[in-house]
Amino acid sequence: MVSRLNPYISFSGEAKQAMEFYKEVLGGDLAVHTYGSFGSERPPGYADKVMHSMLETASGFTLMGADNPPGTEHKPGNNFAVSLSGDDSDELRGYWDKLSDGGSVSVPLEKQMWGDVFGMCTDKFGITWMVNISERQT
Length: 138
What we know:
Elements: E1 8-11, H1 15-26, E2 29-34, E3 50-56, E4 62-67, E5 82-86, H2 89-100, E6 104-111, E7 117-122, E8 128-133
Parallel strand pairs: 1-4, 5-8
Antiparallel strand pairs: 2-3, 3-4, 6-7, 7-8
């Protein structure tokens, strides 16, 4: 397995729903492991909570997520952003449309001073996304 860099998102009980939403948006294969699927009742009440999940897409994206363990403070969206970038405008605009639906847009998806089309939104789960569409190199 090659090394990879990808975001890991923590949730406060809605990791399964959020990761299924991202699968709908991005496609790919989603593996979800709950505390209970490992035969663990620890911590108590966490049998159905997500211990680890990983979404891998045909485009090469990898996104991981889990529910916060007890005693861990959850601060959605204020400590990171997930970036989608490339030169396939139709694909990236499709992701943008789905991610921004039901969320809020802080930077509209439009041409920026550096020449790319860029936008930033927060999805309905409180996660900040950046979409950058560069011109195809010829």
